Amino acid sequence: MCIVIDANTFSSVFKTNSSDHNDFHPVLEWICKGNGKIVYGGSKYNEELRSTKKYNKLFRLFDAQRKVVKINDQEVDNEQARLENLIDHRDFDDPHIIAIIIVSRCKIVCSKDASAYPFIKDKALYSRGFERPRIYSRSSNADLLCDKLIADCCKPTSKTKELNMLLS
Questions:
Q1: Which CATH number belongs to the domain containing residue 7 in this structure?
Q2: Domain range for residue 40?
Q3: How many domains is the chain partitioned into structurally?
Q4: pLDDT tens readout for residues 5-36
Q5: Tens digits of per-residue pLDDT, 109-141?
């Protein structure tokens, strides 16, 4: 299972003394101890990540543990540009998040930005048959953190499965 984590929830997910960490602790637990992986990519997301040195370092640690999936930046940027041309609305300030979802086909987004939810759910932004993502915004959404929602980009490759069988 993979998840796109909006920068507005970095401290909620990763900082244990954050006032709302209890609502986001299941995400951290699932990434650290379960099958969870963080999906990200694109210039805007990379910029947000670089501006938070502590979380940038954390992402590098997760990457070393194979807990992140980096999506092609150019594909995400192209999709973001397409979305920005489609929608001109003052609340549409996270097109890069939706672009990551579209390019990766990720099925969960972690966000506290309620003004973004209608856009994330807007079927007009997705191709026909696209499974729109679910939104993790509090601990009552913990049932979303399950293997049945694993996007293809996060599934082990057949080579990984073969390697694991050889090591068993």
A1: 3.40.50
A2: 2-167
A3: 1
A4: 999 999 999 999 999 999 999 999 999 998 88
A5: 999 999 999 999 999 999 998 999 999 999 998
